[in-house]
Amino acid sequence: MFNRIRRLRQVAAIASISSLVAGCGILSSDSTEEEGPIVVGTTAAPSTLDPAASWDSSWELFRNIYQTLLSYPSGSMTPEPDAAESCQFTDRTNMKYKCELREGLKFSDGHALDAQAVKHSIDRIREINVNGGPAGLLGSLERIQVLNDREIVFHLNKADATFPFVLATPAMSIVQPDAYPADKLREDGTVVGSGPYTLQSYDEGKQAELLKNDSYEGYAERKNDAVTIRYYQDSPTMVAALRQKELDVAFRGLAADDIVDIQADDEDELQLIEGSGTEINYLVFNPKDPMAGKSAVRKAIAQVIDRPAIAHKVYKDTVEPLYSMVPKGLTGHTTGFFDDYGEPSKTKARRILAKAGITTPVPLTLWYTSDRYGSATKAEFQELKSQLEESGLFRITLKSRPWKTYVAGYQKGEYPVFGRGWFPDFPDADNFIAPFVGDQNALGTPYVAPEITETLLPRSRAESDRANVVKDFEEAQQILVDDARLLPLWQGRQYVAASAEISGAERALDPSTIMMMGELYRKTSW
C-alpha cells in the first residue's frame, strides 16, 4: 500500500531537483489511451495564449505546448538545448550568443521550424511591446542575425551572462510566423506550436486539453499520452474534485487549510509532495498616487506589517516571512527590511509619519486579485487591513478583481497599492530585481532606479560566476529597501497533491516551479 509522502522534497531552484527522485516510486509507465488523460487542477488560469503578451503564470501552459531554444530537463538547474541542438557564447565578453537548431523541426501545422521562425518569435515580442509583457526580459538584446536555416546569432548590447536563462523562459516560445502576426497579438484562442503537447481544445478560464505531440523533437519525455488541465476559482473546490477522483493532481493555489487537512489525513488515497520554493508575495506602491507615492507612508507601512502573523494566521506556516525581494536560498539573499525596520512597531511608524507632516489616519485602498493566487489571498489582505488599522495610523479600503481585469487595472496605474506574486523566470537573484525596475517592467508600473539598471545589473551580468556578484545584489536590494516601493511579505513552499495512483509529480517541477506535464503518469506496478 502506498504511504503518503511526509518528508520534504526540494522542488525548486534552491536545491538540486535531481535529489527528488528518491521515494514515491519512480516506476516504468505504460500509459494507454484507455486510461484517459492525466487530469491536473490549478487556480492559475492563463491570461493569454500568445507568448508575446505574457509575463505571468500563463507560462505553465506555454512550457507544455510551445518550445524554446533552451529549457530545463528534469534534474537540471541550468538551461540545456531543447529546440536547439547546441547554444553557446562565441566571444569572451558574453555579447554574442549562437544557437544551432535541431534538424527537421516542425510546428503542429506541419510548417518547418527554422531560424527565421525563431527570429520572428522574439522580434515580435519587442515590436508588439505589451505593457507589463515579456519585452522587458530582452533589454540586453541588440539584434538577431540568421546565418542559415538552422543557425542564429543573438547580438547583445552589453554583456549578459543571464541571456541563456532568458531564452529558456516560456516567453521566448517559438511560434509559426504565418500564424502569429509580427505587429499584433493572436487572439483567436488557438495555438500553433512545437512543444511536447498540442492544444486540442481550450475553454478560457475552465479547461485546456493537451494531446501528446508525436512530431515533437526535444529534451522532454512524455510518460503519458494526454493531459487535461482544469482551472478552478478556489482551493476547496479543487481539492474536493481531487478527493472525488475528478482530478489526478492539484497544484498551484492550494490553500493552507487544505494542505494541513491533507497532511493530517490518515487515509492512503492522497499523497502530498512538499518542497521549498522561490515563489514570493509582495505589495506594490504606485508612485503617482497622492498617498502611496509618499516615501513616509510606504515606510510607515513597512514598519507596521507583521509578516510572521500573516504566515501563521493566514497560511498556517505553509509560507515563511520574507524580508527581501530575493528569496532565501538564492545567492545574494539579504534580510534588508528586517535589518532596517526590525520588529513591527506602531510607535516608530507614527514617528515616520509625524516627521513628514502626514495627518493620520492615512486613507489607502489596497487591491488584490480574487482568483489568481488561491483563496487565502482575501484572508491575507483582511489581515493586512487589520494590522494597519489597529495601529491607528491608517484607514484601509479593500477591493478585488478577477486576474484578467486586475492586470489591466494595475497596468493602467489604477491602484494605489496592490498585491502581486512572483514565480521566478529563472533561478538567479537577477530575476527578483530586474523584472520590477526600469521604465518597462513586469508590473506595468515604471520604477526609475538608475543605479540598479545602469550600474549594478549590467556589472553583475558581465560575470559568469554568479557567486562573484553577491555585493551587487546586496546593494540593489538596499536601494529597494530605502525606496520601499516594493514590500516583500512571504516566501512560499511548493505543494502538489495527487492521488496515490500518480507518480512523477516530484520530478515535474522545473527550477521556476513550472509543471512539466510529461513527467506525470499512473503507476502500473509496485
From TrEMBL:
A matching Pfam family: SBP_bac_5
Chief localization: other
Superkingdom per UniProt: Bacteria
Solute-binding protein family domain boundaries: 78-442
Signal peptide start-end: 1-22
GO biological process: peptide transport
This protein's UniProt keywords: Signal, Transport
Cellular compartments per GO CC: ATP-binding cassette (ABC) transporter complex; cell envelope; periplasmic space
Protein location: Cell envelope
Segments traversing the membrane: none
GO MF term list: peptide transmembrane transporter activity
Listed SUPFAM superfamilies: Periplasmic binding protein-like II (SSF53850)
Similarity comment text for this entry: Belongs to the bacterial solute-binding protein 5 family.
Protein name: Peptide-binding protein
